[in-house]
Specification:
Structural class: alpha+beta
Enzyme class: oxidoreductase
Protein name: thioredoxin-dependent peroxiredoxin
EC number: 1.11.1.24
Organism: Pseudoalteromonas piscicida
Number of helices: 7
Family: Belongs to the peroxiredoxin family. BCP/PrxQ subfamily.
Number of strands: 13
Shape: globular
Length: about 210
């Protein structure tokens, strides 16, 4: 299998990461998210302080609401994270924890105002988790140019072209055995899962 290297320079951060490309779609509509009944990827990722977090261990602790978002620079993602934070007490009461993962560096995550023992942000700056979940895709050239000009993203050369990858935003509910019980992913990043649906999904998972 051929292996390629993509450097990702993220918004609001000078941190540059190299991502090994194994499963990145050509467009958001072409991603293939993992479905319920499949084991969730049990990778090791960094938190905002740079500490390694083992997802396999975290899954065993509680039902996990796994949120995949595009980055702290995305206003739609910020609103989603804030909305989930509002229902955090209800989720915790049902025995759930929240783990939100983005391609941001740990340094960028440290700028977040979310601070809770039940709500953790993790860095997927090598896009390993996004690829394992089947959510990663390349931005088209037009979007890449707009992001560069309007958001200040620094792109690097990839096989003669400027490229960057992002995850399709998604929410998974993972049980204590590490099995996905619920999945929502939408290629339209402006449309996010309603909190009431998430509460219902966690309630159903807690009764299994």
């Amino acid at each position: 299998m051929r292996h390629f290297i993509l450097s990702l320079a993220l918004v609001c951060s000078a941190f540059v990461s190299a991502a090994e490309i194994t499963n990145i779609a050509a467009a958001p509509e072409q991603v293939s998210p993992l479905l319920p009944g499949i084991d969730a990827p049990a990778l090791q990722l960094k938190d905002k302080s740079g500490k390694t977090v083992d997802l396999a261990t975290r899954y065993k602790e509680n039902i996990t609401v796994l949120v995949i978002y595009r980055g702290g620079w995305c206003p739609y993602c910020s609103r989603q994270l804030a909305g989930i934070q509002e229902i955090e007490p209800q989720l915790v009461k049902m025995g759930a924890q929240i783990i939100a993962i983005a391609p941001d560096s740990p340094e960028a995550l440290a700028k977040s105002t979310i601070e809770s023992p039940h709500y953790q942000l993790l860095s997927d700056n090598e896009m390993r988790m996004s690829q394992a979940l089947g959510l990663a895709y390349f931005l088209d050239d037009k979007t890449a140019l707009a992001y560069r000009n309007k958001l200040g993203v620094n792109f690097v050369d990839f096989e003669g072209n400027d490229k960057v990858a992002l995850p399709v935003p998604a929410v998974f509910v993972v049980d204590k055995k590490g099995l996905i019980q619920f999945q929502y992913a939408n290629p339209n990043y402006k449309v996010r899962l309603d909190e009431s649906v998430l509460l219902a999904a966690v309630k159903a998972a807690s009764q299994l």
